[in-house]
Specification:
2 domains, alpha+beta, VC0802-like, elongated, single chain, 4 helices
Length: 129
């Protein structure tokens, strides 16, 4: 799975066009969100076929800014503070979290500035929990 970062015009129908385009091309969104930023919106979505998504969206004039590696982590929903604890471990390792959202399986998805360090922290978290 990878994260695609998409620049959308902030106008009616843009998210519909994105969803319809991916759906017609049998590309499923596994999590993500859209965030308004002035005249544009920034979207981040988790997809299995990032390169294909970029290609089909480009044909509709939708720009995929980046394709990002992600860390996928399961947090314990019954333990308050899991997000803070996990993010503190990332911060202590010098990892900056650039994007955070959840997938459809209630897993934490993060895009980071140092994927190698982040995977080490994530693997350690999985062993401890």
């Amino acid at each position: 799975m990878k994260d695609i970062e998409i620049l959308l015009e902030n106008s009616p129908g843009q998210l519909a066009l994105l969803g319809e385009t991916l759906g017609k091309n049998n590309i499923s969104l596994e999590g993500g969100g859209v965030f308004q930023n002035g005249e544009n919106s920034i979207a981040h979505f988790l997809v299995a076929e990032a390169d294909k998504a970029k290609e089909v969206l480009a044909k509709e004039g939708i720009v995929v800014n980046k394709i990002n590696e992600v860390v996928i982590q399961k947090l314990r929903q019954d333990v308050p503070g899991q997000l803070g604890m996990f993010c503190r471990k990332m911060a202590n390792a010098g990892v900056n979290i650039l994007v955070q959202y959840s997938d459809h399986s209630n897993q934490l998805i993060i895009v980071v500035d140092d994927i190698l360090k982040a995977k080490i922290v994530s693997d350690e978290w999985k062993r401890q929990c």
